[in-house]
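Regression report. Comparing outputs from two consecutive submissions.

Submission 1:
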Amino acid sequence: MTQLIALACEPPEKSGRPITHWTGKELAEEAVARCIVDSISPSQVNRYLRQAELQPHRSRYWLNTTEKDPEVFRVQVEMVCACYHDAPELYQRHDTHTICVDEMTGIQALERIAPALPMKPGQAERREFEYKRHGTVTWIANFHVVTGELIAPTLGSTRTEEDFVAHIARAVQHDRDARYVFVLDNLNIHCSAGLVELVARLCGVEEDLGVKGKRGS
């Protein structure tokens, strides 16, 4: 059983199989081919997988950090986790919204060339297969960490510094008298001079901020 579990944890391409994820049938065949067992059924393989809490048919996305200094990365993670941990109390007691912001770019704007046909007895709804393209769009979303709401999303053709600044400006209009904590990744437009100027203006900061990368704050 140990060898079978080890096999299940290997990528199928290592065994020369043209699949991305193992199935009980493929694992049974490979176990016999490698002489791990004389014979075994797919159902028995699946029972072993369940006992080992392995699910070859499932996967989750994982993002590797580009930060090389582990101490800097630890501080960054702790800061983000603290934002999420404090979000409920900030929202309930201090009128502060904690918002996670991210973008999805390059979404294809497709239109079916004919409307769908409604279902009728003995026949399911039928959708037109052919479509025409209308370019791509970018979706910028604000996820409210406490309520789970999607607040003031932006759908546009580009994702520039100006687009993002305008997006944040619209987001804070959702509740003008409240305070906000925005959680962002390290994309360059998330730390632009335009965004700093917007935040300073909203916070009533009037002094000269200087020039990004040259002088001032």
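Submission 2:
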Amino acid sequence: MSIVTSPTLDGHLLQVLITPEGQANPYPYYALMREEARVYRTSFGPYCVNGYAESQAVLRDPRLGRGVGIEDAGMDIFGNTSSRRSEFFDVGQHNMLMADPPDHTRLRRLVSRSFTTRQVERLRPAIHELVDSLLDDLAQRGDVEFMSEFALPLPMAVIGELVGVPAEDRAGLQPKVRAAARGIEPVLTEDEIDAAIAAIAELGAYFEAFLAERRREPRDDLMSALAGASENDDRLTDDEILSTAILLFSAGFETTTNLLGNGLLALLTHPSQLADWRAHPEIASTAVEELLRFDSPVQFNLRAALEPADLAGEPLERGDRIVVLQGAANRDPDEFDRPEELDLRRSPNTPLSFGWGIHHCIGAALARLEGEIAFNALLERFESIELSGEEPQWRPGFTLRGLQSFPLRVAAH
């Protein structure tokens, strides 16, 4: 098959990358793209894949990786370079999200020791307790802002507990995390890049002091385990510890916050599915998987050829870049029957929302656990959950898809 170029496809991609309308609802554009070509090359450089099989193949191909260091890390999706953007990604090279093997292998192995099933499972009672406490507050008020009053504080408290960040420090770190997270968006202004770099510096200073404290007084948390890992034969540098701690704390609530918000909005717009879950809480695991597929908290991944490779039968040169639209892949009718419908009992169901291959999200099990506990508790506690009049507002951006505001009216049984 020959890889096409098309101004029409470029136009659809640009809609979801840079327009508020496309970011608020990218799915019609994905469908139009898929109808024309599942793999194509943009006029501004990168290849783009939107089909499930094609996206999965790219994400699992060891010849295709992050590529930081192969090309200018400051290059945006259009090929424009910025020294400030390079500065932002220079920091990111010290964690497993941006690293390629062999550094990625070493970093992930050491972090995995601290992110075991046992570590996740031991949080189950704390998650139940946190959920119940937050729902008590919502029940008292009735009119609530779901994102700031539930969807954000729950996963931030959970990952804070796992990493070891003190409860009194978490809320103050949240705006810095959000500003830093903007740095991974494919299209940014210089001001946004500056804000992301400043936020990374502030987070770095906080976690540097936190690391020093944990070295003096280790505890049963992930930061202490990372600090201990630096003293083994296969040790982490201080830059790697700090970058990894910031990544785990940030990713641990940014994406799960989006799962809770996107997922509840999907349920409210599909009342028969919500009623089914309310009547059958035992479907929680398949239901959460379907919410992840239906409106993925992460829409986009970027890969680069680490060596000569191929895509859909065509050769790639070292440094060629590929945009992977995993949000589009999750709606591919070749993989999912009736993909535009929400079906909480869908089986089999293996969305690409957590990525694939060596970069598969290390916190996937924790996010699923939080989702199952939170949605079951919400549906059990509240007889009525409805929009309170104002439309939910989407956050600007494309990579991380989530709501800025979600006003609701809830009523307990």
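Expected: both submissions complete independently.
Actual: both completed, but the second showed a warning that disappeared on reload.
Relevant detail on submission 2: The chain has 18 helices and twelve strands.
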